[in-house]
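SEQUENCE-TO-STRUCTURE ENTRY
===========================
What this section holds: a protein sequence and its matching fold, both as plain text.
Question of interest: how does this chain fold, as expressed in backbone structure tokens?
***
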Amino acid sequence: MLKNEKILITGPASQVALPIAREFAKHNEVHGLARFSNPADRGVMESLGVKCIPADLAKDSFDNVPEDFTYVLDFAVLKSGNFDYDMAANAEGLGRLMYRTRKAKAWLHCSTGGVYQLDGHNPRKETDALGDNHHTILPTYSITKIAAEAMARFAARQWNIPTTIARLSVPYGNNGGWPSMHLDAMLAGQPVAVHTDKPSAYNLLHEDDYIAQIPTLLHVAAVPATVTNWGGASVSIEEWCAYIGQLIGKEPKFLYTDQTLPSIPMDLTRMHQLIGSTQVDWHDGIRRMIQARHPELTLRQ
């Protein structure tokens, strides 16, 4: 783990980044950059010992951002649906922040499997075609994340910033995630939306694993930027919902529709070569997630 470093985390109160901020703040000087439009988020960060830097990536200057961070972990993403705003935040803001923190030893830009062109159930490799696979639910997401990757590549070369671009699949854990949303839907008796081209397979990545892998992702940062998929076991929505149902005693109901995400499975060969494999079995991770988020439930075997 990282110790005695000065670390900047963007989007620190998000589902993915909050566990990272909590863990790294134990042994490092951690700063969190976000709009902090919700005062409660700032309170959580400060309670963890994170120093908050209020800033809007789309329009604010970064004059209040220190220039001497040793590492930057970029987990911020805007999904407002406004192309001008989201492009300014996710791509332009990324470039401006990389310039401001160009003295860092390494940058980690968290990208997404949402940048890949869909190709049925074929696992996506880092060299495969990119495309807009989120247009049915988040119209700006894929396009601005692809633009962000281009900006990170440019900034790494332009200012000699060792950078890793990690294309995250489906993160989950005690702080939530997509399986947690499906759990809540099942508890409420609501159907889970699943694409008609079933099964809908992704690569579940538990928060314990992605926290543990961040130091290695920083270690493999390079110029030109290192690009890698980032995920765990290949599991379908149908599979993890069935297991959730087994634990809570409720059979999932599925709503099959074209107006949701289809499969975006990843080929993890390059990831395993660079940073190794994951350790948390997804069944154990799902069980722990349910126990943490719904302690009132008595889980079945």
Notes: The chain has two domains: 6-171+203-230, 174-202+234-265+279-293. The chain has a mean pLDDT of 97.
